[in-house]
Amino acid sequence: MFRKSKIFLIIIFCSDALATDMGISRLIDIPSSRMDADGLLRLSHSKQKIADITNFTYQATPWLQTNFRYTIFNPDNKIRRTIYEASDRIDGLNDRSYGIKLRLIKEGQNIPEISIGAQDIIGTGAWSSEYIVVSKKLNNLDFTLGMGWGRLAERSSFSNPLKNINDNFSIRKKSGGKRGGELRSNSFFRGDQIGLFGGFSYYYPKLNIRLIAEYNSDSYSRERYFGTINDSSPYSYGIEWRGSEGSSFMLSHQQGNQLGISFSSSIDSKEQGKIPKIDPFYSSLDGAFKAKPQKTLNFDKWYDRLFHDMEKSGLLLRKAKLIPNDSQAIIEFSNLRYNMSADSVKRVLTLSQLHLPRNIRNINLIINEAGIRAMTLRYFRSNSSKSFVKASENYSNITILPPREIKKSSNHTDLFRTLNIDMNLATKFQFFDPDKPLKSQIFLKINTIFNLTDNWNLHGSFAVNLKNNFDLNRDPNSYLPFVRTDINKYLVEGDSGIDSLFFERRGSISENTHYRLYAGILELMYSGIGAEFIIKPFKSRLAYGSTVNFLNKRGYKRDFELDHYKVATGYLSLYYATPFYNYDLALHFGSYLAKDKGSTIEVRRSFDNGFSIGAFATFTNVSSADFGEGSFDKGIYFKIPFDSISKGSSKSSLSTLIRPIQRDGGQFLHNFRGKLWHDLRRVRYDSFGNNKKRMIPK
């Protein structure tokens, strides 16, 4: 139950680590050198007089911590503004920024941990600072001492030693750009002075609390200038309680004049789920009277018996072929339920052990992922009886091979004209609007998939509005065609309607070349036709893709009406599965929805458990002035598998794309670029190679 509430916190943005006001691991406001556990995703929220702050913090590697922060400065002021709007000396800034921290030296018995970091590296510059910080543990005491630039040099300061290297280090230029969102490299570690900060914490394990005291070299001159606070003491104190599974809660007295409260929730993105248990069902071995099979099934045939048990297990048996002379069977199947593909293989092998003729020694499994043959797994059946092998069986019994096609299959499942419908409550969120930081819609979502043939499907998604607080108070305010900035018109005038309704065909030209074709209402704002191709050589870390779309903007009511705006988009893509920490890189070059041209870089960390997190940035021939606030398109992405919060197993997940601000430059069609690469991630060679132990039938 607690894990469900924790995911709920992440979904609604309410907010093990030392989660505090600024997201990056620290004491209260000052940074420490500490890192979270590798792969930890943490959401935290804090409230105090000067600002309400929401943080996403991700431990990107064991030595690199990243952070996205959203700040509502002076939350008591109801008049909100962007960085470039005029102000009457009353702070009302809604700020979005990114931070980073790098560990230089890991703590040892006689050496401290040393880290270097920067706040607001891309943003308005409102939190602009850099620091070098040292931390050392002595039993339950943890001491921190650091020196800082920018905001962290406003008190207890002395001359910047980097001036001795170059005089330019004495000049700290205003950062963020006129529109915000620019990399402020011209201000890193610059300024005439640097400041000293420090503090300590004491952990009391019996009560599971930390007592914290700190000295902050940030004097909050910006907030004093705007009159949010009159004065600021460097001393702050706090007490933090840590709950189970990565939750925390803190009360603090800060800057000598205000109380603060913060809380956080976290999830381990690397955590491998347990092998799922299958709900009990009557097997075909129990006989037709108990199993109650479909009328078309004949339990006298091994294929029909296997089909029944696979269907009950969340698997689709597509076709098969027995080759008695070679003592082998070839089975093509699709995984409909299991989050980890290795678990689906284990289940198929277990059921094959029960139903295949005893003379079959080699079982070849062709894994069909959403219509694409992605991989072949060969299993040597050392025990052909209905008893199962021991867990210690040699993993070399499983061999990973390129995908193949069954020629002249002896058995085939007729998939023509099957209709699948599911309904559930769904939400849409819009964050960071200066007038209303959180807008949302609750609606009934109806999804349908109509299987026309083995390769052709009709996909539909329909929304029935239940509650909606989106509005049209802010105009698009864009120099470019309104390809995304008028999104709220679709959510207000078309609060109920068609989200998508399109035909799709997926298939393979060869074992390395795959494609998808599609036509219809493709997403909330666009209809059209298009195609995507990917060349993905077996075992290669490189893949090559291309996408082309011919689109027509939809009418605002989300029916079949079309707008006058037409555009063709196209991209050439290069993908690389790095050998480092499960990171994938993607580069896309092409033409975007506003007819601008440029490139997008994606960095995404994906795990075999289905969890994925990453960031992207797009640079086109649109100037920062024409682009508007934010200067260029960028954002973060994460996908959390439902498998991590449910008892069973599911391929469903919560996917969220977060942009600091929605503009028109660098925009692309959602789910219609690079989708084949990401869809095939769970059936990649390394995903099976890393999990052979999970695939052995038992």
Provide structural commentary.
This protein is mainly beta and 698 residues long. Among the domains are: 2-268, Porin (Beta Barrel); 290-415, 2-Layer Sandwich (GMP Synthetase, Chain A, domain 3). Helix content is 10%, strand content 44%. The protein contains ten helices and 33 strands. It starts with a helix and ends with a helix.
Indicate the topology.
Layout: H1 2-12, E1 40-47, E2 51-61, E3 64-73, E4 94-105, E5 113-123, E6 129-138, E7 141-150, E8 157-159, E9 182-183, E10 193-204, E11 209-215, H2 221-225, E12 235-242, E13 248-254, E14 258-268, H3 288-291, H4 302-312, E15 315-323, E16 328-335, H5 341-355, E17 362-369, E18 372-380, E19 398-401, E20 411-412, E21 418-431, E22 438-451, E23 456-468, H6 487-493, E24 497-508, E25 513-521, E26 526-535, E27 542-554, E28 562-577, E29 583-591, E30 597-606, E31 612-620, H7 624-627, E32 633-641, E33 653-658, H8 675-679, H9 685-689, H10 692-695
Parallel strand pairs: 16-17
Antiparallel strand pairs: 1-2, 1-14, 2-3, 3-4, 4-5, 5-6, 5-9, 6-7, 7-10, 8-10, 10-11, 11-12, 12-13, 13-14, 15-16, 15-20, 17-18, 18-19, 21-22, 22-23, 23-24, 24-25, 25-26, 26-27, 27-28, 28-29, 29-30, 30-31, 31-32, 32-33
Helix pairs in contact: 4-5
